[in-house]
Queue: 2 jobs
Job 1
Amino acid sequence: MKPIEIVFYVLTGITLLSAITVVTARNPIHSVLALIATFFCLSGHYILMNAQFLAAVNIIVYAGAIMVLFLFTIMFLNLRREDEESKTNLTKMAAVVVGGILMVTMLLVFRAVQLPSVSEGNFDARTGLVEQLGILLYSDYLLPFELASILLLVAMVGAVMLGKREAGDRHF
Amino acid sequence: MDLTIFIVKSIIILAVFGISLLIATYSTYVERKVAAFMQDRIGPDRAGPWGLLQPIADAGKMFFKEDFIPAQASKWLFILGPALAMLTALMSSAVIPFGDTIRFDNYEIPVQGIEINIGVLYIFGVVSLGVYGVMVGGWASNNKFSLLGAIRAASQNISYEVALGLSIIAILMMSGSLSVRAIVEQQAEAGFLGWNVFTQPLGFIIFLTCSFAECNRTPFDLPECETELVGGYHTEYSSMKLGFYLFAEYINMFVSSAFISSLYFGGYHYPFMEQISNALTNSLGSVTGHNVATAIGTVVFFGKIFFFIFFFMWVRWTVPRFRYDQLMNLGWKILIPLSVLNIIVSASGLLFNGMKYASWLIVIVATVLAVMSNSRAPKGQVSPQRS
């Protein structure tokens, strides 16, 4: 086995393990920490695929910003009770149905999809780097990129509006 | 062949690791000495000559104290907290270029842990993870005050990260690269006055302010507060676990000093470097001369780092701390809009004739406004307070 394959399998093992821990952990804080570990491992996979920029941004945005807010919320709510809130049979049924549909969809997709074969001859080592990504985003994908930025701007304005204190509000 | 490079690289990495630990250790000593100097005291002078063994004595004390874990604490997370803080603090020095290249036989090896093309993003990723050490530790203590301290620290860090990131975008536009080494090299092209501190004065001030906040240093040391929070996020910690938290702060200080020096002060470059380097190469030969020139550059870089570490301490013992709402207002309502303005002005300057010094426009306008508002202010004496 090549060293890169060993790295890949070890990394995949850790990824799956931490992803399973996210679901099975009783304590919400442990769950969030396992999710952070999962994001880390995903960044490792990005680096294996030579997408360094994506790996760094994944850590900064997901592990560094979004998960901190998750942790914040959970810590404030102090969800430390070991006993789970009992879920009704209806929610359990719905969860089973949704999960089953997702699994069927993924199975069908994996059956139908043709994975492109990798040729080492025309492999460009610079593909995943920042320059290439920037050129691609500002030439071929300019419109989707700008639309996404407008979407983010709208979300930001909305968040500011929600957080804004109105004139008569209580001053904490 | 590859083995030589590997060995030299490992030596460099180990040296960087050791030096950052050593400098952080002696920063604790220097901090007390600087404080003593500023307050007209002597400072630690009992352990060894001039108190030089004081950090070792402190470490010994820390190790021999009782290592206490609160009964209701989440044990593993309680241990994980300081470990994470220490880990993230030590990780970030890997991408900082400490010098030019070492040349031997046919190899040129950069004096740097790893040279990656996303060095700046790497540092930001590591910095954004630094929050977890504090948050995990504070939560695992199972103490309301620790939790409040942790949340304070985390919200301060994530607030100032935004302005920190925005302030260096102007630099990235000028250098066109995310690699720290490329940014350092790009500053040297235009000589001494091409350093980013001269082309980006406003960005430098914002970056400096934010790095104070990221390191939890005075005037932004609000995560620790005896009067409001009993202690801070590390109230429940004792022994070397507490030592790790405090030590991580000094490592962060070293790393941010190194980062400031390489982003804004030309890294290992110094005025008339070309001439000195050429003279050395001519007199000592291309291998020895080059290596000596590299060594001089590294020494200069460490000089810059020491200056900024001293600056951190200087500010700590001079400026009083902020109140928490003032801190948040400064971060969100002043620093972020200013850094966005800085990006826009610098970008327009670069678009028109590649004018690098456009950022001075904001500084001049801001100074004029400040002077004007000051001259309009009522000149009368401050009226004494009535009791």
Note: The two ends of chain A are 61 Å apart (CA to CA).
Job 2
Amino acid sequence: MSRLQVVSGKGGTGKTTVAAALALALATEGKRTLLVEVEGRQGIAQLFETETLPYEERKIAVAPGGGEVYALAIDPELALLDYLQMFYKLGGAGRALKKLGAIDFATTVAPGLRDVLLTGKACEAVRRKDKSGRFAYDYVVMDAPPTGRITRFLNVNDEVAGLAKIGPIHNQAQAVMRVLKSPETEVHLVTLLEEMPVQETADGIAELRAARLPVGRIIVNMVRPEVLDAAELDLVRAVPRTALAQSLSAAGLGGARRGGNAEKLVDPLLAQAEEYAARYALEHDQRAVLGALELPLHELPLLAEGMDLAGLYELATELRKQGMS
Amino acid sequence: MSQDQERDGARRLSSARVLDVDPLLDDPETRIVVCCGSGGVGKTTTAAALGLRAAERGRRVVVLTIDPARRLAQSMGIDSLDNTPRRVKDVDGDGELHAMMLDMKRTFDEIVEAHADRERAAAILNNPFYQSLSAGFAGTQEYMAMEKLGQLRAQHDWDLIVVDTPPSRSALDFLDAPKRLGSFLDGKLIRLLTAPAKLGGRAGMKFLNVGMSMMTGTLGKLLGGQLLKDIQTFIAAMDTTFGGFRTRADATYKLLQAPGTAFLVVAAPERDALREAAYFVERLAAEDMPLAGLVLNRVHGSGAARLSAERALAAAENLEESRIVDQVGGKAGLRNSPDTYGSSESAGTGSPGSRAAARDEGSPAATDDERPADKRPDDEPSVDRLTAGLLRLHADRMRLLSREQRTRDRFTARHPEVAVAEVAALPGDVHDLAGLRDIGNRLAAGRPELPETTV
């Protein structure tokens, strides 16, 4: 596995959840991972049920086997001040710049600068070593912007290096790109088995490839269990209603007679089966589309009770089982 | 047993007010409907469905979409980007539906062209900093959506404008980004970058001057001299148009507070989406912006909501177990169908509708005592197995439903004043007018999909 794992996906596909599960999966067996948030949503804190994360690397979870997950919510403004301080000892000037709105400008309006800072901070964590020369983190997992913006986000180099042709920003952008375009990085896309997310995944992969960014794997999230297969669905359509009513009645759900409680269940249950069948067919098609992309494909189950901390560990175990660590 | 079914009805603390969509769309005073919400909740589809419904109810509507799915855009004939509304064909009724897809860069270019003379406009349009700024990064899309909305409103060609908002990480970006860009274009930094020469000679400004040369020096160091120069040139060229920018941004913002505007917050019944929705509701209230209600998309209901997940699973297990231990009593095999059950049965026909039509009138009264009791080969799938499958499907549905219910109730407990329209989930995506019409019907149905308390 590459040391920088970038996780993107269409909005609503659960990319933060998958990034967190991946950070946990990679941390098992004594490894140390850093989970990085770049969009200021505090999604990681919510997932791990901790208080709001500051701009500071802190331990948020212990993985099975003693590994550790650290988390960092990157604040572009603080990252910039950090950066000014680190490279130019510009603490005071930084404050003055802030007063003038320059920091605001740099982090919200200046083209790409914000993204340079965000990716820059992540890459710094990837390269950082401790005194003994060991990497500070075995893996860095980034909860990245959505598929529609990921290529632009990661590919700040062209833009910024093109705009700022010399100077430290230029150098910084190029250093970041060296990490992002190397085998040290993998960009994974999270999707659902639905048309739009799958389409966006296909488009996103094409864009990443065109920009020569390393595409990793496709992770299909929230996969519903198969309750009835295609053959069974055909059979459901063929069974007489009375037979179903009797069967429901035999299961202890009331009378099978017309108007009986079991009989009244037949129509709604069949309607739900039709909805399931339509979805089943659609999912089948979308799996085929994803299959044609010829990338390693992982599937994570929909957790019936919704996402919580226990569910996160469950997904991490699942990722490990599927060899994604 | 039936008592159990009563008791298993869905639990719900308080009923949310139901959002009545049609009166909102029909009211001639309603001039702008803004659909906002976090990414992936179906904003674009909702905006398109509302636009179509309003048009088919007689209004002259334009829908401004930001980033529609390709097939949806094609179905409305707006898959080519030309930044002007196109009339949508095959709309029923007397009204009209026009639709357009926002071209952010072109909108920006048009503002520049409208505010600067030709020479200056050309200088701006060719400036590398401008090209990057207008091609879209944080804020530009939101700003341009607002700008386009202002333009459409000023044209008086439509009596209703439905706006989709840009896909952003947070629903609030839509309100904040234009201000951010506006305050940048109008701010101290701009003056700093353009003005040092003017201030240079004045006495008493010495301190400021030192600060400023340090600033520009720092910025130059940081950004590289070339970029700083590009920015300065850009700003100098834009100088005269800034006032215009600011005024326009303010005017559009005021438009959103006007009585003819209605905000619809769109969400899916998921924790994150509804949390964003709640923030947005609070924010709209703080900004005096009129909220019409919440559209809750992709909600799952059930016609058999009285049968709980637990009982459905227990019944399914019951069927599966008894099949193993007792192959004889009370099992109806497929082999028996359809003749065992009377000629009026329509076995093997398509939809649930046709099945529902085929009542078992005239067939032998099917009571628990009279079930056929003949044996079938083990390898043949039994009706019981299929029934168990149906019950398991139902159990999954009920778990999903109660999760959605809990999520929604958390929102309504926090914001009981917000009217809610629940839209049942469709198995697939919408990419034609018929699909949009269907969504419109679901939106306007005026009844909650998730069941009410049945205590």
Note: Chain B touches chain A through 108 residues (CB under 8 Å).
